[in-house]
What does this fold into?
Amino acid sequence: MAIVALGASAAIQGPASAHTHTAAKPTRAQQELLSRVPASAAVLQKQIDLQLSLYPGGKQTSANEVSYDGGNFVITFAKPATTQPSLLSGKGDCPDGWFCFWDYEYYGGAMGKLSSYGAQDLWRYGWSDRIESAWNRTNTVVRFYNHTTGSHSEYAISSYDQYLFMVFPGDYDTSVKYLADGEDSERNKADHVYRCGGPGGSMC
Ligand SMILES: [Ca+2]
Ligand SMILES: [Ca+2]
It folds into this structure.
């Protein structure tokens, strides 16, 4: 397995773990339900139930939140609304110290958030090919990658992963990313993220 070097010297690899993608692939209807801005609390709960059945291991922690891996990865579902998803900003849901990403541009729809260093596989939480906006509230760079083909460790970025974009730390224009119409080469593509830094990690 080839490991892509990010920056001057660092090769990035974490604990070995097979990246097998054997779980059932959601149907188009299931995907549509998960990505919808729910019209009612009942639909919201259906989304959460579906999330937990398709991607086991999570726990519902509030009316609109599901938490995985002891809080390592948290999904904040959009609150029930009848307006267009693109008009709903969930930016206020992203806490300091985390990096957050949304299903729609301009922080719309469901939000996922992570704060761990190193590589993470979004697929295992049902977040492949969904991201249209992101905000980095950590203190290090976060990079987003598109998985192309082949399998590799869940906790590494490999030569199979195509770099898409990065978001910088700090409260600047460069710490947010919108993938609007016309940015189809990056939009709804990310499958892996890499947060630079951490003990022994690359600063990229
Ligand atoms: Ca999306
Ligand atoms: Ca992808």
Notes: The longest strand covers residues 108-114. The pocket of calcium ion (ligand 2) is lined by residues 128-129, 146-147, 189, 191 (CB under 6 Å).
